[in-house]
Structures are given as structure tokens and as C-alpha cells.
Amino acid sequence: MDYLLTLLIFFPFLAAIFAIVIRNNLRAYAIIVSIIELSLVILLWMSFDSKADSFQFVTAFPLIDSFGIHYIVGVDGISLFLVLLSAFISLIGFIYLNEKTEVKKLVISLLFLEGIMIGVFCALDMILFYIFWELSLIPMLYIIGAWGSGSRIYAAVKFFLYTFLGSLIMLVGILYLAYYYYAISGIWTFSLLQWYSIEVIPSDLQLWLFAAFFCGLAVKVPMFPFHTWLPYAHGQAPTIGSVILAAVLLKMGTYGFVRFSLPLFPDASVVFLLPIAILSLIMVVYGAMVAFAQEDMKQVIAYSSISHMGVIMIGVFSLNIEGIAGSIFFMLSHGIISGALFMLVGVIYDRRHTKLISDFGGLTKVMPNYAAIFGVMMMASAGLPLTMGFVGEFLSLLGFFAISPIISGIAGISIIVGAIYMLHLYRKVFYGELKNEKNFKLKDLDKREMIALLPLVVIVIWLGIYPKVLLEPINKGVENMLNIAHLRVVDEKNWEFLNMVSKEDMQNIQEEVVNVGSF
């Protein structure tokens, strides 16, 4: 079990190399590989101690010992389910995969990307994390540029440049923090576990380092105003590219804020709390408004992702267990729901080669199964209670309510707009008269598409009714992270503020919410 994480990271890499010599049945090969990978992740979950106070399944050995660069991987309640999400979405993506051209190259790219994504969420050495972080750009750049449509080259290059340039600034912060650790201890190390042990980072230095990390992480989220690459990337990417981008890659940014920014720079997190909350609120309102104005189904979902990621960021910077645990749960639910919605848009695009809302209408008459699954995912995206989308949204806003009822209230009201644009989309596409002759003979979901989509429906409903199975381990991971942050606060006022937003009565509310979800 000690090397289980290493196996999870590098097994897809080895499978991708072996795929080079396979000529036929590449999709079946990829599905088998992903089933094995998901089985290993489930084994990891079953072996995970949800009550432990530290990282588990840690593997460490030196890479460049003189510079303190090590191979260190491990998981806690925060990263465990993001690893699970990466493996599960990869499997669903391979089941759905229907590309006809250059299938071998696409499968190899996706297998490499699967290993890289898991590496990002497991890495506990900052250089190792940065390597995986940057490597994730290459397969996605290739997938958008080679299998996309329209102005795919422009979209791919814009995606790469935005994320790469932001990451370079984050690298400067990583290197300086390693130098600071060396200056106070005489030891070179990039180990996150050892960085957590730094007793004091001066408040002014925290501000600069937080800003450096912010540049890399905010672009990946993407936060306003660094979001402009996302609609292009989604609009031109193939379906499988949009699914993985929305379901997993965007979560790398929010995961980075939770894993690095909050515990390493707690004073700066408090200082920047209000500006980031305002930017996140702009994301919620702006994303919802622009989504409502779109005429392309894929663009509606792309802008809705920006709005939902704004709610996740609000939860992250609530700086308490309720909000952060809710934001992590929302990362998972958004990954499942947005991945399903992009897949559903891909289904109709494969049949009609158009994504314009005006080209459809009355599809419930010819595609009832498709309409039913789309309806479930549409309601989950709108945050309907008893669906997975509601739990994370509610807890994220509940956590931030302890800091600012006004911002939480505005964000909550703006989510109503999300229900409006999703219902508007659903009404235009699925109800009314079936007027367009090209839609008369549209085929409903086939067996392959049903196998890919039905598990997502089950998960959305199951975890909407019983979220406790995920929330308990997540809560423990968040609690451990906040303890690290509390111990390293420099300013006494910031320490008092963190204690105020983590007060006991809010924890009691969390327990009540979990109990409601487990009836």
C-alpha cells in the first residue's frame, strides 16, 4: 500500500506508452486501463482512515537531494476525492469517446493527462507539483488544437499562454519560499510538509508570496478578469476535452488555494479575503448574466461554469470548515454535473452538427431518454435540493455567511439566475413544437451513451441525498489544514478573526446539515 499512489500516477503513463504499439480497439484498451485505475482509487478510498490527522499513503525519496527536491506524494481528505474524480471522469470519457480520426493519438494524450491530473492532487513536493501542473497544459493544448473545431488553434494557444504565464509567476513565489526556508533553517527543501512547519512568515512577505501564487492559481480557476480563455477553450474543444477541462482541470486552481495559499499565508488570506470575495461575486453574477444571453448551448454551460467556480471561491475564502468543506464538495459536484452537461451537448452535436439553441425545439418527442437525463443534470446545475449540486452550493454560502451576509445573499440570489437560464435553455430545446425537419429522425441515446451517462445521474442523486459519505473525510482534511493555518498566523487581529469565523455554533450547523443529508 505504501506505493499505491505512485502506481496510480504512473500506471496511465505506462498504459499510454504500450498504446503506441496497439493498432486496433484503442477505446476498449483505454476503458480497461481506466477500470483498473478506478479500482485502485477505490482501494485507496477503502483503505483511507477518515479520522487520521495527517497525510496518508506518503511515499518519499530524494530526486535532487542537494537542492532539496524530492519525490513526495500523499493524500488527505481534501485530495482523496479529487483523485477519485479524475479517475472516474477519465473512465466515463473513454466510454463516451466517439472520435473517428487519430484515435490512437487521442487515447495516448488522455491517458497521459489522467496520470498528470492525479499527480497534481497527490504531489507534496512543490517542484514535483509544479512539474505535473505544467505538464497538464501539453495534452490539453494538443487535444484542443488537433481535435477541436472552428478557431481551435487560437483557442488552444490562448489557453496555453494564459495558464503558462500565470504559472511562471507562481514558480517565482515557490523558489523564493524555498530560499526563505533555507535562510531561516539552513536547509534547502521544497517539501510542503516541511514548509507547513515554518513558524513565522512575516506579514509583508506573505502578501507578496500570496500574490505570486494567486497569479498562477486564479488563471486556472479561472477568476475574473483572467477568465477570457475559458469560453474559447470550451467552445472549440472536442467533447472529451470540454468534459475533462470542466470536470477536473479547473479544480486544480481552487485546490491550490486550499492546499497552499490558506495554510502557508494565513495573514495574507485574511487581508485579501474581501477583494477575492468581490471578484468571486462578480464571477457569480457576470457568469450567470452572460450565460443567459448565449445562443450556443455549449457557451451557456461554459459561462455557467464561471459562475459556479465563483461560488466555490467564496466557499474557499470563508476560512471555516463549513465553507471550505462545502467548496471541496462543490468541486466534485460541479465536476460531475458540468462533465455530464458537456457530454450531453456533445451527443446532440454529433447528430446535428450544431449547438445553436434556435436549431432545436420539441426534442422530448424524439429523444425522451436524452431529455430526461438532461433535465436531471439541468436541475442539479441549478442547485435543486436532493441533488449533488445543492449541497456544495449551500455549504459554501453558509460558510461565508459568517463573514458577510450581504455577499452571501447576493451570491445566493444570483444563483436563481442560474435556474432561469438553465430552464430557458431546456424549454427552448426540449419543449414546443418539433418544427425543424432535420430533428424529426434524431435517434435517442444509444447503449454506449447510456452507459456513460447513467452512472453520473445515479451519483448526482445519491450524493444529493446522502453527502455524509464524502463530507466526513473532507471535513477532517479541512480541519487539519485550518489548524496549520491557525498555528502560523502572525497578526493577533487575524488570529482573532479566524477564530471568530470558525466558532462552535457554525460547526453545529455543519453537523445538522450532514445529518439532514443522511436521513
Describe, in short, the structure shown.
With 519 residues, the protein is mainly α.
Commentary on this structure:
Helices cover 74% and strands 3% of the residues. The protein is mainly alpha-helical and 519 residues long. A two-stranded antiparallel ribbon has the order 1-2. The radius of gyration is 22 Å and the shape is globular.
Report how far apart the termini are: 34 Å
**pLDDT under 50 segments (min length 5)?**
504-519
Listing every helix as H and every strand as E from the N terminus to the C terminus, the arrangement reads HHEEHHHHHHHHHHHHHHHHHHHH
Physical arrangement of strands within the biggest beta sheet: 1-2
Please tally the β strands and state the result: 2
CA-atom Rg in angstroms? 22 Å
Specify the structural class: mainly alpha
**Biggest sheet details:** 2 strands, antiparallel
Shape: globular
- Binned, the helix content reads over 70%
- Strand content is under 5%
Mean pLDDT: 87
Q: How many alpha or pi helices?
A: 22
Provide the descriptors you would attach to this structure in a database record.
single chain, 519 residues, mainly alpha, two-stranded antiparallel sheet, 22 helices, 3% strand, disordered C terminus, oxidoreductase, ubiquinone binding, NADH_UbQ_OxRdtase
